[in-house]
Amino acid sequence: MDKITTTIRQLRRQRGITQKSMAERLHVARSTYSKLESGNTTLDYERLVNISKVLDVPVSEIIKDNGDPVFKSISEQLVLMLSQTNHQLSEQLCRIVPYDNLTPTHRQLLKEKGFDSREAYENTPNGGRIYAFGPSDVFRFIVENCGMDVLFRSNLVQDEHWTSRWQEFIKERGKISICPDENGQFQSEDGKDVQLDDTDYHTVFIIELKMPGNIDRWVQISERNFPEGGDEWDALEYVKLMTGAIDGQIVCFTIDGYDGVTEIVK
């Protein structure tokens, strides 16, 4: 992984992009990005793909060492291939049902979730909550149309994330199949597979705390629960006070939604 982070640093400098700018585009703290370049924090596949987009280079250029792949094991290469394929196809194929095209069934489902107003429906990173073609369709498309089922049937893929998606696919197989319509678009044959994005979207700050006994603890807090009139730094002090932490730092933030169970303010 050291070779990869060195390449990232070199490509960033060649393009005149500062660490601060990279951190902002990746939605992480500058200190976190600095640790990433120095190899002191985990670089997962999804972040690697996002970095490649910021640097405007293919992932293959980042992960090669003098022309040879950095990921040498079959398992690592297959996981990277799956991640890249899923990411690229998600951007090409995923689409949302426009608010004005929602069916009565869609609207009833949204009403049950409290997302039936136009504002609530469209206020997501994708601009909507009902998928015409969603994340599970992408994986199904990869398996059924790209021939990648052999990777799972042969147990070549050992990564827990992908094996769990494969098991879910096997469980649901037969209920919905994917085929191109007359316009070449892919959709569910029976039209009954409604995928709903019901994420509770908020800007959330991830905080690393140093607890008594030199114990590290990670928590998150949503902007909606900041102290009244305060900013993220006031929230950091509030969290430290609430938890009895000796010290703490804001590691990153995300607008991708969060698990309310681990929210610090209850």
Quick tags:
266 residues, alpha+beta, 3-stranded antiparallel beta sheet, 45% helix, globular
Q: If you had to describe this structure to a student in words, what would you say it looks like?
A:
The protein is α+β, with helices and mostly antiparallel strands and 266 residues long. Helix content is 45%, strand content 16%. It has twelve helices and ten strands. The chain has helices at residues 2-14, 19-26, 30-37, 45-55, 59-62, 74-93, 104-113, 118-122, 135-145, 149-153, 160-172, 232-243; strands at residues 64-65, 68-69, 95-96, 130-133, 178-180, 186-188, 195-196, 204-211, 215-222, 247-254. A hairpin with a 5-residue loop joins β5 and β6. α2 crosses α3 (30-37) and α6 crosses α9. The longest helix is centred in the N-terminal third of the chain and has 20 residues, at 74-93. The model is unreliable at 176-180, 183-192 and 258-266 (pLDDT under 50).
Can you summarize this structure?
This protein has 266 residues and is α+β, with helices and mostly antiparallel strands. Helix content is 45%, strand content 16%.
Strand content: 15-25%
Shape: globular
Strand order of the largest sheet: 3-4-7
- Kindly state the number of beta strands: 10
Percent in helix: 40-55%
State the secondary-structure class. Answer: alpha+beta
What would the average pLDDT be, to the nearest integer? 79
N-to-C SSE string, H for helix and E for strand: HHHHHEEHEHHEHHHEEEEEHE
